[in-house]
Amino acid sequence: MRSKQSNCQNNILCIFFSHPHSCFPQLDITILCEFIQLEPFFPRQIGNMIQILFPLVFLEMGLILALVFGTPVRRLLIMGLDRAKQGRGPLVAKTVAGTLFVVFISSLYSVMEIQKRWMETGSLNPTDQVLQAYNLLEASLMGFSLFLGLIIDRLHYYIKELKLLKNSMEEITQEHKTDSKPTKQL
Description:
α4 runs parallel beside α7 and α6 runs antiparallel to α7. This protein is 84% helix and 0% strand. The protein is mainly α. The chain is elongated and about 95 Å long. It has a domain of 106 residues. It has seven helices and no strands.
């Protein structure tokens, strides 16, 4: 008996989520979840990605601030980034960034599909509004994260270049000082 009821509930979910605007136009997601005796799963299911992306964005912003200002933490961060860019580090970073970019494009596509439905029907049902808000927030956070990752990479590169230029300038000035000392003529 229980398996038939859960199978029926799964069929209702499949019908509702495959064609939400055509099946039950006035049905709210909380009513549907009460019907199948579940707590609303949209915020929990989609919220997991958002709960990962918010700390990631704040961590990247903290890294950028630590790299911009000359603090003792900056030296440690540069050493850590140097080590991360050796071996398989760049491959892993590119794979993660590529995956994040694909999910970012998928979220943007979902937002565009919901907007297209909105333009066709003239109104947006509550389920589509919630999905659009979550997809837009998710896409925004992923875009910020990718952009901040690029900023961190470029900051690291320019800090290393600046350090190399400073060292070479010091060597040149030292050579110039030793060469320009007046020699005693007899």
